[in-house]
Amino acid sequence: MNINTLPKLMLTLLLLISSSLYASNVSANTKSNSLLLSTDKTQFISANMDAGSVSILNAETGELIAEQALGKDLRRLALDSVNNQLLVSDYLANQLYLIDAKSLALIKTIKTGDRPFGIVYDEYNKQYYVTLFEAKQLLTVSTDGDISATTQTADTPRGLALANDGRLFVTHSMTGQVSIYDTRAATLQSNTLQLKKVIQLIDTPEHASRAVPQGKPRVLDNIAISPDGTQAWLPHVLWSFSDNFQFQSTVFPTISLLDLTPGKEKEMVDKRKQLFKQINIIENNNTTRIVSNPHDAAFREDGKKIFITLSGSEDLLVFDLSRQGEIGKKSKRHRRTKLQGGVKATQIYRHIPGTNPRSLIEKDGTLYVQNAMSHDLVSFDVSGKGPFAKVKLANAQFANLISHDPIAPELRLGKTLFNLANSDKFENSAMAGDFWMSCNSCHVDGFNFTNKYLLADGTKDVKVNAMTGHIGLSSMIAGDPIEAYIDMIQKTQGGMGTDPKKPELPKVDPKAPSVEIVRLMSALNMYVTTKENLPYLSTWLRFDDERKFTHKSEWLNSASCESCHSTLYKQWSNSNHGMHMDSPYYRFQENLAAESEGEPFRNLCRGCHAPQTILNNNTAPLTHLNSMYEKEGQSLRDALKAGLPVDETGTSCVFCHRITKAEDAGGNTDLTVNLKDRAEYLFEFSSNPALKLIAEAQINASPQQHKDSYSNPELYKSSLYCATCHNEFTPGQGANVNNNYGEWQASKFNAPDNPEQNKTCIDCHMRMDMTDFDKKTPGQATDNGPIKPNLIAHNFIGGNYYFSDMRSKEHGKLSRDILRNALLLDVAMSEDDRNIDVKVTNHNTGHKMPGGARRQVWVDLVVTDSKGVERLVSGQLNDGYLPKDSRVFAKKSGYMHGEPVGLKFWRVEKILADTRISPDETRVESFELPEGLSYPITVVSKINYRSFSKPLTSKVQAAFPEQNIPFADVIELNKITKVFQQQ
């Protein structure tokens, strides 16, 4: 052998060995986590969640080696060991960070859709996968930090796990699904991930006893694959909102199991672990140990045990797997394994030191638990062999993850309380009774889009109970949030001295709490009112800025838009979306809300009706408002001419055109407004007319910049944009008040795959012709601009013709047109000649008719005999009052005891009646004919409509006697006359 070839042979041998080692690394199962081990296992790498940093720690000593501040809320990270770099998800900043794994130096920031969460690295394809929780996407990210593919997924993708054969498992947190993607096939088709299967976890059926686990699988944060790749364990909860929300019957801790046999993946339904069944450790007093909020799972390296963090009750749950049979094979040891649900919990370690345990990782017989609120690591000895070996605490504070907490102590306390279900902490003022649930059990990560799933999962009969959330609130969360929080905790979470298992604890008086409890609840309120939650408390309105409030001078007066958009300005200014939401009816309702619940509760109304006043911190009653008869926003023109800033009511041009996000949380102004990132031109905010002309000249010279700042077609053309205000739910109690969006979603008009049939809110309510929704009307959005084939009109036409008439006869006519285009009418006689059947069909409305809470729609019927005598009369006004026996189409809301809530709509607890007509529904109203009729008879039937009833208008007139408030006239939507002979 030539000696010169030896180095080449050795090199080849080394490469083969290296390839073999690399292949074994590729074959390892991995899952998304916020705590990782370095490749050589000498260091921990931690994503420190709301501390906003990444840390490196010595895995032997716990010493904090390095920490790098990156963003807001870092949820997960994944390691590319070849390039020695990390990809980190920032949940609140909507971006990813590619960083060096040694120095933690930032390499690249990657903008994403809403709420990036899970991340895993794929050694085989050398790329990352990232879930976007809110955006419903799965990203493929290259090692260079480029998004190479975007895959649309089912709702709420969150947890990730990658099997050694390339199957990628994605948990869908709020729908209880697991999607399986083939990452190996992706390399063959432009990197697009191939969906192979979706597994729907079963609902545990309802049980007569509310203390038995039942409900829908929800809050799936993580998925863990067993070392042998045969199983996956998914910690989650069951939501059961089929009855009153209550801590001992609504949220149940659960772990579901999947059989991962390739091509035959399925849920092992009989192996599901549930409280009182497989999660069942008996206390000394012969009661079951209650736990809450299963979060993360990790297998011991030998696969003999699995550990699960219980983040609410702050416990560690242990299952011994050493005696379980193989999947698909019957156990020889236990004949009834299947009936018993497989392995049961062998230990619940109570409590894990620190606060809010989340992620965990096992290394060489030691388990490390990452605490989210105290930002430290706890270590446990889990090396014991045999099914009876117990997990033992090794070090209560193995390591501090951060050098200092960037969150203020009181805010940290509030956030901790929000996540806390450990009844042993603050025992006399516990957030939960018997360790059952925390606020976070339902309000996942605070108050965000997941709220809509709470509302949707309320499966009760609304005529019996319309509330999904907290029941029987004595006060809304407004004037005195401290009292409201205590009231909620006592009535639905069993805390604050109301735990039935601890009758010896003193019950806190919500109206006279101790100084300590006031401190705790004030801290909780501080967290609830943070920017990412409910900064204005009674409304879901959010302001995208580090500041909480603006000044009215920062808002462009809507009249300034008129110089370029005169047509649209005139339409808007005379519309019911314009500045005239200051009507006396609105003021009357807002004043009632403040009087009933406290002054801050005005925000519930103002979020939609006067949002700029909230953002400008204008808390005063709206006594300064303009006349409801004012035309074309003349007061705005006057203020603009005088150079005076204005605090506009209604929805101003800038407000609507700077909405950057619709949260889809159920309504109540669940949107985000951004002022800081718009394009600004020199002198744009000047009050000097000459300088304003210079600003306008700049806009005309560079219009695209202006258009980009004030136009978001993808959002503005969506019906969800309108739903932010036209859907309403009651704060705290979670009862639906108005569901126009949901009704439209269920209608034939929501047909995106059929353009001829599909009609969005805009397609019907922002048109120039309300008699034909398919007719396109050309027009100019910008003066001297191009003629658009179908002008998106800013009349915002709806059913309130009453106010439209006051300012513009054109608007009034359009309002009447859309109403008369809504319902079809027919009249027939029954086969036995005993009844007249009036048939009303909602054929052209995408929501129930009527849509507004105060609107009146009813049947007006007159039957005249052959002698001209009126023998049957129904629905005719008596001095403006509608008789009680009239056939009215309306929703009537009430309290649990049956009394109507009247104008206090935010207090609705159940629906007393709902006779509104759904889209495409035909309602038949039968009227019994009197005896002895002389035929032929003439039947005149009408469908009448009125914006406001006379009793309501009388109350508003009494509240504002100085205003000239007329009664609403009645308009006839449809009329039919028929003559019938006796059959």
Topology (SSEs and partners):
Elements: H1 6-26, E1 30-31, E2 35-37, E3 43-47, E4 53-58, E5 64-69, E6 74-80, E7 85-90, E8 95-100, E9 106-111, E10 116-122, E11 127-132, E12 137-142, E13 147-152, E14 157-162, E15 167-172, E16 177-182, H2 183-186, E17 194-200, E18 216-218, E19 224-225, E20 231-239, E21 251-259, E22 266-267, E23 273-274, E24 294-299, E25 305-310, E26 315-320, H3 337-340, E27 345-350, E28 357-363, E29 366-371, E30 376-381, E31 392-400, H4 409-418, H5 451-456, H6 481-492, H7 515-528, E32 542-543, H8 566-573, H9 584-597, H10 602-609, H11 611-615, H12 634-642, H13 653-657, E33 659-662, E34 671-673, H14 689-701, H15 703-710, H16 713-716, H17 719-726, E35 727-729, E36 736-739, H18 740-745, H19 761-765, H20 801-807, H21 809-820, E37 823-829, E38 835-842, E39 856-864, E40 870-874, E41 888-889, E42 891-894, E43 910-914, E44 922-928, E45 937-946, H22 950-959, E46 971-980
Parallel strand pairs: 32-34
Antiparallel strand pairs: 1-14, 2-3, 3-4, 4-5, 6-7, 7-8, 8-9, 10-11, 11-12, 12-13, 14-15, 15-16, 16-17, 18-20, 19-20, 20-21, 21-22, 21-23, 24-25, 25-26, 26-27, 28-29, 29-30, 30-31, 33-34, 35-36, 37-38, 38-44, 39-40, 39-41, 39-45, 42-43, 45-46
Overview of the structural elements:
The protein is of the alpha+beta class and 983 residues long. Strands 18, 19, 20, 21, 22 and 23 form a six-stranded antiparallel β-sheet that branches. Strands 1-14-15-16-17 form a five-stranded antiparallel β-sheet. α14 packs across α15 (703-710) and α20 packs antiparallel against α21. The longest helix has 21 residues, at 6-26. It starts with 5 loop residues before the first helix and ends with a strand.
